[in-house]
Amino acid sequence: MTTQSPLARPSSEHSVSEKRDVSHVEASDAIEEEEDPIEAKRVLRKIDWRLIPLLMFLYTLTFLDRVNIGNARLWNLEKDLGMTGYDYNIVVLVFYIPYILFEIPSNILLTRVQPRYWIAFLTLGWGLSVTFAGFARNFGGLLTARIFIGIFEAGMFPGSLFLIGSWYKRHELLSRMAWFMVSNDIAGSISGLLGAGLGSPDGVRGVSGWRWIFFIEGGVTCLAATLAFFFLPPFPQDSTFLQPEEKTWVLRRLRADSSQTGQDEKMNVRGAMRSLRDWKVLTGGVLYLAVCVTAYSLSVFQPTVLKTFGWSSLKSNLLSTPPRVASGIVSVCVGIWSDRVKRRGVFCVSGYAISIVGNLLVMLLKNGNLRYMGLYFASIGIYICQPLVIAWCSNQVVGSVKRGTLTAFAVSCGQLGGIISAVVYPSKDSPQYVPGISTCVAFQVVGILAACNMWFWARHENQQRDLGRRDHLRELAEDEIAKLGEKHPDFRYTL
């Protein structure tokens, strides 16, 4: 005699779901028929509160420690270290080289080491690196510190996305990723305030303002590593904070949602290389690169652009905050909306288009107030796309190996955007920065083309499955069917 889970509805409702034609619906629909919505919501909220706030806090610190050099620049950084010409741009750029190289290896290690151990180690490593950057005496010392910050930060973002993606169904994912990535906006909103506040003791005890920024922000990050060590949850199959029946329910719905059973497969080099041959994984890299060229330009160079309006360093730091607040609010709202309607493409294309309009306003207009309005549009549009493209591409693949490879590869490609933004905004292009902003617009056009390709292909493939033109795959051996992943006839791509 079996005991029914408190998360299941009565068997009479379950019998209805058994009569449905699963070849014309997503595999998750059957699970939705079985769920008690009140109990399901309770368990999901339990997961949300354990996972999302802590990762948001850690990623906020990640982003602050990455872009604080933009605020430090306004507090005598270049003067104290004797930096001239492209030295600042090189310091910004060099961070991204180790960041790109260590993305995929870090996600491979994450599946073999408990997330709390690995992410706590990374957090402590980059916190110490930021702190020691404050002791730099020349250009070479700051350059070395930035390299180590890149090494340790490399695993945090893709690892967090991988962990979040392991806990939720495909159409629950974007709203959670949007909340997680609103950390970008939190960091962007307070970085100016922190730059103004932490740098204001400039000269106190003979220490320049930029050193105070690095010392204090780095020290806070080191302390935050203890939170990751004690409170970060593992992957679902290893969780202990859920009741046994809750854990069973979570694992069962995740398997049903992706039409496969290989959830516990660990990443390895061979699997990662095989996944990189999938065009959907490659498209994820293109889409995220198109996002990050503009995102990093806004994060690192926005205070500098604002200063060309004739504003002081303090005012430029402070007024870099409101556009990020607006973009964070809109990003979360769009994420919730997209999850509810189970659509991605239309929001993705719209986000790129809005950002293009904003960038053109900043580049072509002369009036400071109108250019400032353009920064709002540029920020809102691009931060709609940032969580969206990761969630959308993750929706199109099945299995831990491919999902982990996709998140790491996409984020690696995104960091190329950081390198590009670092070299296309030299001071000589002030105040309009035509080459830099034109580069952002060009990449966003590429993003629109890649998104339209994904959107139309997903629609075509779903139509083929609805017409039964992929049903011949059901005749494969059982073990082969289990390996089909997103090629399974029951699987539906997200439009």
UniProtKB/TrEMBL annotation:
Residues 51-465 form the Major facilitator superfamily (MFS) profile domain. It comes from the Eukaryota. Residues 11-27 have a biased composition (Basic and acidic residues). The keyword Chaperone does not apply. It is a multi-pass membrane protein. Keywords: Membrane, Transmembrane, Transmembrane helix, Transport. Residues 1-33 are annotated as: Disordered. InterPro entries: MFS, MFS_dom, MFS_trans_sf. The chain crosses the membrane at residues 51-69, 89-110, 117-136, 142-165, 177-198, 210-232, 281-301, 321-338, 345-365, 371-393, 405-427, 433-457. Its main location: membrane. It is found in: Membrane. PANTHER family: PERMEASE-RELATED, TRANSPORTER, PUTATIVE (AFU_ORTHOLOGUE AFUA_1G01812)-RELATED. This is Major facilitator superfamily (MFS) profile domain-containing protein.
